[in-house]
Automatic annotation (TrEMBL):
The gene is glnS. It comes from Luteimonas padinae. This is Glutamine--tRNA ligase. It is found in: Cytoplasm. Residues 354-454 form the Glutamyl/glutaminyl-tRNA synthetase class Ib anti-codon binding domain. Its EC number is 6.1.1.18. Monomer. Residues 25-247, 267-337 form the Glutamyl/glutaminyl-tRNA synthetase class Ib catalytic domain.
C-alpha cells in the first residue's frame, strides 16, 4: 500500500471531511483544449484526480472552451488519451459550454440584483479607467444604468444586435479596490465567432473568471485546485459564486435538464498551489506550439518535448511521472525543480519494471578464433537481476560478436578496465576473452578484433571465477538485428532557456546534440518487442521501442535516460 500523502491541500480535504463540511469530495481538471498537455499539467492531473481517488470522491474532466474557435478536436482527443495514460478516469466529461445557458441566466440575475451593468466603453477606455496598482480606477459613466435598461441591452447583446467589442457586461464591484481584478471586471464580451460546440447560438461569450467559478459551482466541486497565479482572482471567484448562489437558486439550473446533466450545485472553494517549473525546459503552451510550428522539433510527440505525448514517446512511464509528482510535493512555494529529479524518477521506475537486454550502439567486430566456423550456441540469461518473476530468455552466441567500439582502447588511459591488445575482459554471461590481434584498414582505423575465448571460463565453470578487471556487453553478429537507435538528450543546453537577456530567445539555447541517430545491433529478444516496451540495454541506459516507428524487422529504440546522471552543465 502506498504511503499516505501529506500536503496542505490534502490536510484541508481531511479536515473538511472530519468536520462534516463535505461528505463527498469533488474535484475537476479544467484544461483549455488549445494545445497538448505538458508535464506541468501532470502535476495538476495527479492532484485533482489523485485527491478524488484517495478520498473516495469524484473528479470531472472539464474542457474550458469559453474561448470560441480555440478548441481543436486533435487536442481534445489527446488530452483524454493523456489523462487515461496517466492512469486516471473521469467521473464525467464536461465542457464549460454545456453551461452557457446557466451562465446567461446567472448574469441576468446579477443584473436584477444591481451587481452587473452593460458598459459601452471601448476596450481601450476600459483599460484607461482601470487605474494602476498605485492609483484607484474611475467608475464607468455607464455604471449606474437602471436594471431595466441593463436587462434590455444585455438581451440585445445576446440577440446579436451589437458589433464585436461594442459593449461588455461588467460586474459592479469596486473601482477603488486594491485588487485590480475587482475593479468592475468584464463578465461577458461580444464575439461573433461560431463556437465548436454551440455553433452560432451565442454572439456573446463569458469571461474566464466568471465561467470558471460558475462551472465549478454547477458541478458541485468542493475543492477547486489551481495554480498560484489565480490567487489574486480568488476574491472575484468567491464574488461570482456568492452573488449568483447557484445552489440556492435551482431555477438557474433548469437548462441542465435539457442536456441530461444532473443538478449538483454547491459552493466550491478555490485553493492555489505552485506551478511546476523544471530547468532545461520551456513549459508554456505558447512556446511548445512554436517549437512544433517552426520545425525545431519533430512534432508534438517529439521525444525531446515535455508534452505528455513527447515524454511518453521518450519512454517515460505513468509510474515514473506519478513518482516524480509525489516527490516534488504540493506547496505554495514557487521553485525550480532540477531535471535530475525527473530523470531519477524514471530510472527508479524502470529499474524495477524494465527487462534487461543487450545492444551495441557503436559496433566493432570481435572474432573468437578458437571457436569453429559456423559455431552457434544459445545461452540463457535472466531478464532481471533483482526479480526472478521476469524469467529468462535465450541469447544467441557465436564465433562473431559485436562489441562496443568504446570498450576497446589500443592505448588505454590510466585506470582502464576494458579490452586492450593482449588484454583480457569478461564477455557478459559468456566467458573471458583475450584480444590477440587488431585488424586495421588502409587509414589505420580499427575494423576488427580477433581473440581467444578461454574455454575453461564459460559460465558455471571453475575458471569463470578467476579475476579479470572488466565486463563488457556484446551481441551475436550473426543473429543480432540491426536497429535505429536514437540517442536523445536534453532539448536545451542551458538551465533557463526562458532567459531572454542579451536579445536571445529560447531558440538560441537549443542543444544541437539533443538527437543523435545511430545504427546499432540488438539481440533478437529486443527486436521482437512491442512498441512502447522499455528495456535496460545493459551498461547503456533505458530504451523504449518507439511507439510509432518500431517494427520487429526494423527496430527503432529511443534512449529514455542514461543509467547514471552524467550530464555536466
Ligand atoms: P500553459 O499556459 O502552461 O499552457 P495553462 O494554465 O494555460 O498552462 P490550462 O489548459 O488552462 O493551461 O491548464 C489546465 C490546468 O493545469 C490548470 O488548472 C492549470 O493551473 C494547470 N497547470 C498548467 N500548467 C501547470 C504547471 N506548470 N504546473 C501545475 N499545474 C499546471
Ligand atoms: Mg488556462
Ligand atoms: Mg496558458
Amino acid at each position: 500500500t502506498a504511503p499516505v500523502k501529506q500536503d496542505f491541500i490534502r490536510q484541508i480535504v481531511r479536515d473538511d471531511l472530519a468536520s462534516g463540511k463535505h461528505d463527498a469530495i469533488r474535484t475537476r481538471f479544467p484544461p483549455e483544449p488549445n494545445g497538448y498537455l505538458h508535464i506541468g499539467h501532470a502535476k495538476a492531473i495527479c492532484l485533482d484526480f489523485g485527491i478524488a481517488e484517495e478520498f473516495g470522491g469524484r473528479c470531472n474532466l472539464r474542457f474550458d472552451d469559453t474561448n470560441p474557435a480555440k478548441e481543436d478536436p486533435e487536442f481534445v482527443a489527446a488530452i483524454q488519451d493523456d489523462v487515461r495514460w496517466l492512469g486516471f478516469e473521469w467521473n464525467s466529461l464536461r465542457h464549460a459550454s454545456d453551461y452557457f445557458e446557466v451562465f446567461y441566466l446567472a448574469a441576468e440575475k446579477l443584473i436584477r440584483q444591481g451587481d452587473a451593468f452593460v458598459c459601452d466603453l471601448s476596450a481601450e477606455e476600459v483599460r484607461e479607467y482601470r487605474g494602476t496598482l498605485t492609483e484607484p480606477g474611475r467608475e464607468s459613466p455607464y455604471r449606474n444604468r437602471g436594471v431595466e435598461e441593463n436587462l434590455d441591452l444585455f438581451r440585445r447583446m445576446r440577440a446579436g444586435e451589437f458589433d464585436d467589442g461594442a459593449r461588455t457586461l461588467r460586474a459592479k464591484i469596486d473601482m477603488a479596490s486594491g485588487n485590480i481584478n475587482l475593479r468592475d471586471p468584464a463578465l461577458y464580451r461580444i464575439k461573433k465567432v461560431p463556437h465548436q460546440n454551440t455553433g452560432d447560438a451565442w454572439p456573446i461569450y463569458p469571461m474566464y473568471d466568471y465561467a470558471h467559478a460558475l462551472g465549478d459551482a454547477v458541478e458541485g466541486i468542493t475543492h477547486s485546485l489551481c495554480t498560484l497565479e489565480f490567487e489574486d482572482h480568488r476574491p472575484l471567484y468567491d464574488w461570482c459564486v456568492d452573488r449568483v448562489d447557484l445552489a440556492g437558486n435551482p431555477e438557474l439550473l433548469a437548462p441542465l435538464a435539457e442536456k441530461g446533466l444532473p443538478v449538483e450545485a454547491a459552493k466550491p472553494r478555490q485553493i492555489e498551489f505552485s506551478r511546476l517549473n523544471i530547468n532545461y525546459t520551456v513549459m508554456s503552451k505558447r512556446k511548445l506550439t512554436q517549437l512544433v510550428a517552426e520545425g525545431l522539433v519533430d512534432g508534438w510527440d517529439d521525444p525531446r518535448m515535455y508534452t505528455l505525448q513527447g515524454l511518453r514517446r521518450r519512454g517515460y512511464t505513468p509510474g515514473a511521472l506519478r513518482l516524480f509528482v509525489d516527490r516534488i510535493g504540493i506547496s505554495k512555494q514557487n521553485s525550480m525543480i532540477d531535471f535530475s529529479v525527473l530523470e531519477g524518477a524514471l530510472r527508479e521506475d524502470l529499474d524495477a519494471r524494465a527487462p534487461r537486454r543487450m545492444a551495441v550502439v557503436a559496433p566493432l567486430k570481435l572474432v573468437l578464433t578458437n571457436l569453429p566456423e559456423g559455431h552457434a550456441e544459445t545461452l540463457r540469461f535472466a531478464n532481471h537481476p533483482k526479480d526472478d518473476s521476469f524469467g529468462e530468455r535465450e541469447v544467441p552466441f557465436s564465433r562473431e560478436l559485436w562489441i562496443e567500439r568504446d570498450d576497446f582502447a589500443e592505448v588505454p588511459p590510466k585506470g582502464w578496465k576494458r579490452l586492450v591488445p593482449g588484454g583480457e575482459v569478461r564477455l557478459r554471461g559468456a566467458g573471458i576473452v583475450r584480444c590477440d590481434e587488431v585488424v586495421k584498414d588502409a587509414d589505420g582505423e580499427v575494423v576488427e578484433l580477433r581473440g581467444t575465448l578461454d574455454p575453461e571460463s564459460r559460465p558455471g565453470m571453475e575458471g569463470a571465477n578467476r579475476k579479470v578487471k572488466g565486463t563488457i556487453h556484446w551481441v551475436d553478429a550473426t543473429r543480432a538485428v540491426q536497429a535505429e537507435i536514437r540517442l536523445y538528450d536534453r532539448l536545451f543546453s542551458v538551465a533557463d532557456p526562458d532567459d531572454e537577456s542579451e536579445g536571445l530567445t529560447y531558440r538560441d539555447h537549443l542543444n544541437p546534440d539533443s538527437r543523435v541517430s545511430v545504427r546499432g545491433w540488438v539481440e533478437p529478444a529486443a527486436a521482437g518487442a512491442a512498441p512502447e516496451q522499455s528495456f535496460q540495454f545493459e551498461r547503456l541506459g533505458y530504451f523504449v521501442a518507439d511507439r510509432r516507428e518500431h517494427r520487429d524487422d526494423s527496430p527503432v529504440f529511443n534512449r529514455s535516460v542514461t543509467l547514471r546522471d552524467t550530464w555536466a552543465a
